[in-house]
Amino acid sequence: MHLLINIISIFSNTKKLNIFRIFLRNQHRILPFTLSVLFALILGCQILASPGKKTEILWDTYGIPHIYAKDTASAFHAFGRAQMQSHGNLLLRLYGQARGRAAEYWGEKYTDSDRWVLTMGVPERSRSWYQTQNASFRSYLDAFAEGVNTYVKENPNAIDDEVEVVLPVTGEDILAHLQRVLNFTFVVSSEQVAGVTVPESKAGSNGWAIAPSRSASGNAMLLANPHLPWSDLYLWYEAQITAPGIDAYGASLVGIPVLTIAFNDNLGWTHTVNTHDGWDTYQLELAEDGYRFDGKVRSLETKNLVFKVKQKDGTLREQTLVVKSSVHGPIVSEKANQATALRVVGLDKPGVLEQWWDMARSQNLAQFEKALQRLQLPMFTVMYADREGHIMHLFNGQVPVREQGDFKYWQGIIPGNTSKTLWTKIHPYQDLPRVIDPPSGWLQNTNDPPWTTTFPTAIQADKYPAYMAPRFMDFRAQSSARMLDEDTKITLDEMIKYKHSTRMEFAERILDDLIPAARKYGGELGQRAATILEKWDRQANADSRGAVLFSAWAQELDFDQTFSKPWSEDSPRTTPDGLANPQVAVTLLESAATKVEKAYGRLNVPWGEVFRLKYGKVDLPGNGGDGDLGIFRVVNFAPSETGQFQPVAGDSYVAAIEFSQPVKAMALISYGNSSQPGSRHVGEQLQMFAKKRLRPVWRKREEITAHLEERQVF
After folding, report:
1. What are the CA-CA distances from residue 302 to residues 176, 323, 435 (Å)?
2. How far is Cα 387 from Cα 452, in angstroms, rounded to an integer?
3. pTM score, two decimals?
4. CATH of segment(s) 279-344
5. Mean pLDDT of the 6-28 span
6. Residues spanned by CATH 1.10.1400.10 within the chain?
7. CA 265 to chain CA centroid, nearest Å
């Protein structure tokens, strides 16, 4: 009996279980032993097997929270608590930044962040967005915020003291964070506006949808594979949310209160960063106290904002920020008699969280598209598959209706002196590039335009405005399409294998030209380099010898000048090709070889010796690499102080799903499902990542309880 008491005790301390404990300890005074044991087992099983009207979080052994909520508000509350347990320090810091008060909380280094957030009007807009939510969904945001605050009250020592200054958080904080993430990081960032390139902060993705006609099992399949930085607001958080009307599994970015990539028993979707242009910079001609517009001088709107900056001695220094705005948007730079204004889509669309929530609640394609048609999500491709066998690619986004110009034109600075260049409307849902159930039976996107989602071509670029999306197909997209097109009956295991492909499409394309050129024009070093490249397996696996040399050569190239045959829409999957100047290419190869040999002592150094999978306390030989090389398994590495490279972005969350009965799913979150100091889940999945493995997704209660780490009831 003591054993039974101990087993029951580990699950909860609710009143009902406390009564049960009292009964167990006093059963010998109430009933004969046999009857008391029987009663105990019946009551205990009822309590453990049926959540009843409680809300609980079952944490599995990978730190994934499985939320079982009595109602929707309780689900949001529990999700807030769960995110705090896994990422509390990060979440509060992100919310502080979204308020535009990070410099006040944590000092000078956040000054630029605050200036960006305040200039973009994020805090003020979050208040209006909050009021615009319908009453029910607004209460759900409040519940998530309450979950955040309650967690800290109940676990005061679990959160760093320096971030507790953000408490309490509110529903407005959630919407401010949402804006900062979506509109002012993904749609456009301060670095993009300033023309600064941050190579280690690449945001990309792979997404596949496979129809029953191309699936070995006859079931549709979906591959979700976002590539984001492994830090800050880009971190993924994996979870399951079950409540009346919803049973969805997937992932969200930390601080977002709903799943943004998800699946249920009937359907699923993923997002990729699409070639969407949702922002423009306008050049204004300043005159008097305003700017010229349509032949007149129009006044600039001006706001004087004050924000505080924490000094090293703990005191606060006030800074004044003058925010000027034209009809286009806020002024982001000003020089002499010219200024630059920024215009961004989606600032009048506050309903994306509810849209994502309803996407996860959908049970068929019609319901799913009804949610999509709201067009609250400012960008991202939607790749979809379902149990009925439908697959879909939607070039989703709030695309401005523009009167002139192609995609390239709108990448430049736009004249701001006329209303003819000022867009005020977005294209409706029916205008967006979209395909459902193509004859090929497969769809792919690797951040390429929608025109190359499948072959034969299913979305004709000429039927859309020239500014809708550019026209190109890079090496990663070509590799993606090749793998899907070559296998007419793909199994779930094969899809997972293909997902981990480190084959360099660029190497396959160009080595037949580079190696002969090195034999012809190369000196002793060039000849040795050619030998290494001949023996290389053309992959970026840990033991691949030659990948480091080839990658170093690729870094030396100007891709616009490299090929004798540029990319062509007539041959989208076999171009570019050929070397425009073989002698120059060999000179660059010898330059790269010199650097590799000097740094690592030999030309055939294994890839995994140079490129490490290092995160937290884990340090393993790496595989995967830059998508520009045509590698499907993307890992973006940056130099470390040791002379090696370590991951800063790339494969982050992966889910491979087959819509069988029941659904089969495998997943991985590369850096683990927690960032809290001391958590054993930090970096724990990196071993599987290094071995190109995914772990099983546990969705059924019996599966979860069989791999239970902790149970919380409230």
Report:
1. 22, 6, 45
2. 25
3. 0.92
4. 2.30.120.10
5. 41
6. 505-631
7. 23
Intervals of CATH 2.30.120.10 along the chain = 279-344
The CATH code of the domain at 204-276+350-499 is: 3.60.20.10
**Whether 447 contacts 204, CB under 8 Å:** yes
> CA neighbours within 13 Å on the CB side: how many for 547?
27
Q: Which residues of 396-434 are buried (b: 16+ CB within 10 A; e: fewer)?
A: bbbbbebeeeebeebeeebebbeeebbbeebbeeeebbb
Tokens, residue 116: 């960006």
Topology of domain 505-631 in CATH is 1.10.1400
For 88-194, CATH number?
1.10.439.10
Q: What is the pLDDT of residue 616?
A: 83
Contacts of 8 (CB under 8 A, 6+ apart): 17, 20, 21, 24, 44, 47, 48
Q: Per the structure block, which two tokens stand in for 533?
A: 């490249």
CB atoms within 10 A of CB 371: 18
Q: What is the pLDDT of residues 608-638, one digit of tens each?
A: 999 999 998 889 999 999 999 999 999 999 9
Task: Residue 1: count other Cβ atoms within 10 Å of its Cβ.
Answer: 13
Q: How far apart are CA 571 and CA 81, in angstroms?
A: 52
Rounded CA-CA distance 441/391 in Å is 8
Task: Please provide the size of the chain in residues.
Answer: 714
C-alpha 157 chain-centroid distance: 30
| Bridge partner list, 649 | 229, 636
- E strand or H helix at 600, and its extent? helix 582-600
Whole-number pLDDT of residue 202:
64
Pick the range with the lowest mean pLDDT from 2-16, 402-416, 679-693: 2-16
Which positions ≥6 away from 455 have C-beta within 8 Å?
A: 440, 481, 485, 573
pLDDT, tens digit (0-9, with 9 covering 90-100), for 472-487: 999 999 999 999 999 9
Residues 6 or more apart in contact with residue 286 via CB below 8 angstroms: 334, 337, 338, 339
Nearest to 338 by CA among 297, 282, 422: 282
Asked whether the beta carbons of 596 and 603 are under 8 A apart, the reply is yes
Enumerate the CATH 3.60.20.10 domain ranges in the chain, comma separated.
Answer: 204-276+350-499
How far apart CA 291 and CA 334 sit, in angstroms, is: 12
Host H or E run for residue 125: helix 122-132
3-class DSSP assignment, residue 320:
strand
The count of other CB atoms within 10 Å of the CB of residue 360 is 26
Strands 221-229 and 653-658: antiparallel
